[in-house]
Each structure stands twice: as structure tokens, then as C-alpha cells.
Amino acid sequence: MEIKAFCSDVDGTLLNSERDLSQRLKAIISQLHAEFPVILASSRMPNAMRHLVKDLGKVDQPLVCYNGGYVLSASGEVLDSVTIPLKLVEKILSLTKNSEIHVSLYQGENWYEEKDDYWSQREIRNTKTSCIWMPAGEVINLWSEDNSGAHKVMCMGDSQEISWLFGELHFEHAKDLHLYRSNDNYLEIAPKPISKATGLKKILDHSFDFGLDSVIAFGDNYNDIDLLQSVGFGVAVANARPEVKAVAKEITLTNKEDGVALTLEKLFL
User: Which of 63, 86, 159, 208 has the fewest Cβ atoms surrounding its Cβ within 10 A?
Assistant: First the structure.
């Protein structure tokens, strides 16, 4: 197969142990021809990926944000926007009200934080992105004005409390929500109809004359399974979940060992 585009998850896949892009990765990306699409697909918000695209020496690239719930073309046009209904967002807030779970709310270009604590500061530091400080109730009131919802709700905290919340939401709303345990302390919540694969397909259908079978994609976690299964060449990093490795056509080195760069070098140098 001829590979015509590169797509990758960010955290745990593309970024190294410093949560940054390695010089080796930047070097191989610079070897790709100028028009070669470099598409990031992540649970992150747009601004938490734009600086990475720029650091890779690329500009105006499509983005698959919020696990496919918010898809942007290279020019910034919104190709798809699927949100968690407001009533479900309120349900999540109600469930976590009397717990120590930290809840972050995301919609489009905006990230809302109620508490300035360890978790919010950790996300600011890790994503190099700024949030809007606003009580959750005010965010709900703002969204109710146009009957919109959240592209992502992220819950962080003690692993036992996160497990409890996962169980509660899975029992009642498994048909409505994607529930991703990115690690023991994180629960990322997205609308059910979307995935990184559906987001990538939207981009290809809109902007390119080739399909998923011409794409190489990299991932490490549960939310990458559909992506790696859907593309022509799906690659799992060695630190990936066993379920991700099971669907990959190749397993490369870990993200901390420049696994993505290694595979790209083998294919393009």
C-alpha cells in the first residue's frame, strides 16, 4: 500500500517522557513532502494540539479533537460537532457533587474549570493550554441558552472514586456515552456516536482524494482501537494496552523510546 497520510494519538503515543516531541520525531516529519497530511487525533481540545503541529514544522493541518467529537479541517472549518446532551452533563455533575472527583468541561475551543487545584494545574502544565475559570453551574446556564452540550467531560481523582463513577455511568448510559479510562485516575467521557476513526474519515472525505486504507495511524489506548482497525496500517506503541496491540498490524517501541519516529524512518527513509 502507498501511505498518503499520517495520523497519531498524542499522549502516550507521540509525546515522550517529558510530554514533548522528540528531535528525532521532528526530523523524520520534516523529511515528508510539504503536502503530506499530518493529522493529530486526540481527546485533547484544539489548542492543546495546535502548538504540537507547529512544533512539528507543520501549519494548517486538520485536527480530530475530543476523540472525534469536534473535527476541524486544515482551514479551521468545523466538519463535525457532536456533544454530550446537557441533561447528561448535569447528571455527571450531580453524581460527582458529593465526591472528591474533579470535573473539567470542554466545548469547542473552550475549557472550563471550577477548581484551581492539583488536577487543573496538572492539565494546564501537561497540555500547555489555558482554561476559563467558571463555576460548573454557570457553564450549564451558558450552554442552556443555545441548548448545547459538552464535547468532553473529564473526571479526575482517586482511583476508587473514578471506578465507582465509571460503574454508575456505564450501568445507566452505556448506550449514550463513551467512557475511557485513560489511566486509573482519569475518566474521559465523550458522546457515543463518534470515534477517532469517524473523525478521520470526515477529514479525508472533505479534503482528500484517498480513503482510510491509505493512512498510517499510531495509538496506545482504548480510544485508539477503532482508529487502528480502520486505517490501512495501524501501529501500536509497545506501551499500548493489550487490546490495542491485538488489532495493530505492527507493534513499535514505546513512546519514550521514539516508537513512532522509528516506524516512520523505516517507511520513509
Answer: 159
